[in-house]
Amino acid sequence: MVRRRTCLAAVSVALAVLASACGSGGRSSSSEAASSGGKLTLGYSAWPGWFPLAVAEQKGIFDEVGLDVELKYFADYLASIEAMAAGQLDAVTQTLNDTMASVAGGSEQVIVVVNDNSTGNDKIICDQSVRTTADLKGKTVAAEAGVVDHFLLVQGLQKAGLTEDDIDFRGVPTDAAAASFAAGEFDCVGVFAPFWLTALKRPGSHELFSSADFPGTIPDHIVVSKDLVEKEPATVQKLVDAWYRTLQYLEQHPEESTEIMAKLAETTVEEYEQLADGTTLFTAQQALDAFADGSDSSSLLHTARLINPFLVKSGFTQKEAPLDGLFEARFTRDWLRRNGE
Q1: In terms of domains, do 222 and 108 share one?
Q2: DSSP string, 93-160
Q3: Residue 298 and residue 306: Cα distance in Å, rounded?
Q4: In the 8-state DSSP scheme, what is residue 166?
Q5: Structure-model confidence comparison of residues 315 and 40, the more confident one
Q6: By mean pLDDT, which of 57-61, 269-273, 292-296, 337-341 is the weakest?
């Protein structure tokens, strides 16, 4: 399973393509999918919090809510981000970091579903020379620059009274970072599932801390175009309804659902269950609570305020993403009003 391979330059190129299309009479922020009532194109990629969409498709849940969905699976997470930024999708699954990077670059997107939080599937793994976070000082630490495991690393450093200046940080793509660490190249590495399985093959390696130690730091979402929210809110409501109906199906038919998701993930059922343990799917009430403003990382707005300066400082964005209108809770609220938990 692979996700979170993001590059601001690539997103900027996608936005430039979109601007060119608009200038020549193409659609603006509404996608090339030409959505009309009850129809949309939804992109998703490999992550336990997003694989339930395959269950929704195979078990006819989109049809049940009256939604005509063209579900597009992207083996390359970056390609899904580019497609959304270029207006080729109506909706897509993304991390909060990556949504904010796209929004900072000019893409008009709205988060309408909170799928999950990473609760252990993002890890900082070290060799035997590092036993505590304080031991990171002066060590070489690799992670993919500007994305969620880099952000997790910064949170851990701050908690220990350190900054990124106290370590020798190396920006390396996640798969290469895991393999290089396993081969003995770095002292520590920040990686997400399943690459921490590779990293832990290094003799004596161990988990220093993970996303489980920083609840709410790495949330995942379904994002739709702002245009879709404004012009076709009923379609967005059907999408949100389909998501929560899917969660109900997973709870009622766990074995069948896991088989579907494991097949897409190209893992055994046992392997999938191990990886899925590090991802906490949100109930509708938990999602609604996350949409509320707050003073800790259980609040999406609070987490976004932490991510914004991180993205700029890391050089991932030139400016902070505007947060007004980024989070739209009304569709989850409406589901709860009609269905409860």
Answers
A1: yes
A2: EEEHHHHHHHHHTT--EEEEEEEEEESSSEEEEE-TT--SGGGGTT-EEEE-TTSHHHHHHHHHHHHT
A3: 12
A4: G
A5: 40
A6: 337-341
In the prediction, which pLDDT does 37 show?
64
Q: To the nearest whole number, what is the mean pLDDT of the chain?
A: 89
**165 and 292 housed in the same domain:** no
Any domain includes 2 = no
Same domain, 207 and 249: no
Residue 1 domain flag? no
Residue pointed to by tokens 């190129």: 13
CATH number at residue 146: 3.40.190.10
Q: What's the CA gap between 156 and 143, in Å, rounded?
A: 13
Which residue, among 102, 73, 101, has the nearest Cα to 86 in the 3D structure? 102
Q: Could you tell me which residues come within 8 angstroms of residue 104 by beta carbon, excluding any fewer than 6 positions away?
A: 311, 317, 318, 319, 320, 321
Mark whether 150 and 271 lie in a shared domain. no
Q: Are residues 163 and 39 in the same domain?
A: no
Residue 288 confidence (pLDDT): 97
Same domain, 94 and 145: no
Domain end marker among 192, 213, 234: 213
Q: How would DSSP label each residue in 264-324?
A: HHTS-HHHHHHHHTTEEEPPHHHHHHHHS--SSTTSHHHHHHHHHHHHHHTTS-SSPPP-T
Q: What is the DSSP code string of 186-215?
A: -SEEEEETTHHHHHTTSTT-EEEEEGGGST
Tens digit of pLDDT for each residue in 105-121? Answer: 999 999 999 999 999 99
Which structural domain, as residue segments, surrounds residue 154? Answer: 122-213
Percentage of the chain modeled with pLDDT above 70: 89
Pairing outcome for strands 206-210 and 39-45: unpaired
SS3 68: strand
User: What is the rounded CA–CA span in Å between residue 237 and residue 243?
Assistant: 10
